[in-house]
């Protein structure tokens, strides 16, 4: 056989091999590649959805954190206001109590002064009576001269 027959035989065999490969081997390979490309597309789309969902979750968590901080600040402000109100109320009650104590002390002082004045008047009356006895040289009857002694006590 000559070289020409070998080349023609090899060409026919190669053509049959190509036809067989195109008919039976290539379609499953192409289908597997298409399925793989679809899976990759789906994976990329899922990754994009995941990134979008992560970004949304991040925004939601930031918003929740801002709300929580604002709520905490409101609670602190309310507590500070309540503390200030309690302090002011305590100061007011303390002032009222101090005024009441001062008023009671002043009333006690006034009553003590009145008692002291009354005792002093009695003592002055007794001294005046004693002085009058010495001047007159005789005893002055306190019960007989009671009106005179009362008048003298009121003048003093």
UniProtKB/TrEMBL annotation:
<dbReference type="GO" id="GO:0046933">
    <property type="term" value="F:proton-transporting ATP synthase activity, rotational mechanism"/>
</dbReference>
<feature type="transmembrane region" description="Helical">
    <location>
        <begin position="6"/>
        <end position="26"/>
    </location>
</feature>
<keyword id="KW-1003">Cell membrane</keyword>
<comment type="subunit">
    <text>F-type ATPases have 2 components, F(1) - the catalytic core - and F(0) - the membrane proton channel. F(1) has five subunits: alpha(3), beta(3), gamma(1), delta(1), epsilon(1). F(0) has three main subunits: a(1), b(2) and c(10-14). The alpha and beta chains form an alternating ring which encloses part of the gamma chain. F(1) is attached to F(0) by a central stalk formed by the gamma and epsilon chains, while a peripheral stalk is formed by the delta and b chains.</text>
</comment>
<comment type="function">
    <text>Component of the F(0) channel, it forms part of the peripheral stalk, linking F(1) to F(0). The b'-subunit is a diverged and duplicated form of b found in plants and photosynthetic bacteria.</text>
</comment>
<dbReference type="GO" id="GO:0046961">
    <property type="term" value="F:proton-transporting ATPase activity, rotational mechanism"/>
</dbReference>
<keyword id="KW-0813">Transport</keyword>
<dbReference type="GO" id="GO:0012505">
    <property type="term" value="C:endomembrane system"/>
</dbReference>
<feature type="coiled-coil region">
    <location>
        <begin position="87"/>
        <end position="126"/>
    </location>
</feature>
<dbReference type="InterPro" id="IPR028987">
    <property type="entry name" value="ATP_synth_B-like_membr_sf"/>
</dbReference>
<keyword id="KW-0375">Hydrogen ion transport</keyword>
<dbReference type="GO" id="GO:0045259">
    <property type="term" value="C:proton-transporting ATP synthase complex"/>
</dbReference>
<keyword id="KW-0138">CF(0)</keyword>
<keyword id="KW-0472">Membrane</keyword>
<dbReference type="InterPro" id="IPR050059">
    <property type="entry name" value="ATP_synthase_B_chain"/>
</dbReference>
<dbReference type="Pfam" id="PF00430">
    <property type="entry name" value="ATP-synt_B"/>
</dbReference>
<comment type="function">
    <text>F(1)F(0) ATP synthase produces ATP from ADP in the presence of a proton or sodium gradient. F-type ATPases consist of two structural domains, F(1) containing the extramembraneous catalytic core and F(0) containing the membrane proton channel, linked together by a central stalk and a peripheral stalk. During catalysis, ATP synthesis in the catalytic domain of F(1) is coupled via a rotary mechanism of the central stalk subunits to proton translocation.</text>
</comment>
<comment type="similarity">
    <text>Belongs to the ATPase B chain family.</text>
</comment>
<keyword id="KW-0812">Transmembrane</keyword>
<dbReference type="InterPro" id="IPR002146">
    <property type="entry name" value="ATP_synth_b/b'su_bac/chlpt"/>
</dbReference>
<keyword id="KW-0066">ATP synthesis</keyword>
<keyword id="KW-0175">Coiled coil</keyword>
<protein>
    <recommendedName>
        <fullName>ATP synthase subunit b</fullName>
    </recommendedName>
</protein>
<keyword id="KW-0406">Ion transport</keyword>
<comment type="subunit">
    <text>F-type ATPases have 2 components, F(1) - the catalytic core - and F(0) - the membrane proton channel. F(1) has five subunits: alpha(3), beta(3), gamma(1), delta(1), epsilon(1). F(0) has four main subunits: a(1), b(2) and c(10-14). The alpha and beta chains form an alternating ring which encloses part of the gamma chain. F(1) is attached to F(0) by a central stalk formed by the gamma and epsilon chains, while a peripheral stalk is formed by the delta and b chains.</text>
</comment>
<dbReference type="InterPro" id="IPR005864">
    <property type="entry name" value="ATP_synth_F0_bsu_bac"/>
</dbReference>
<keyword id="KW-1133">Transmembrane helix</keyword>
<dbReference type="GO" id="GO:0005886">
    <property type="term" value="C:plasma membrane"/>
</dbReference>
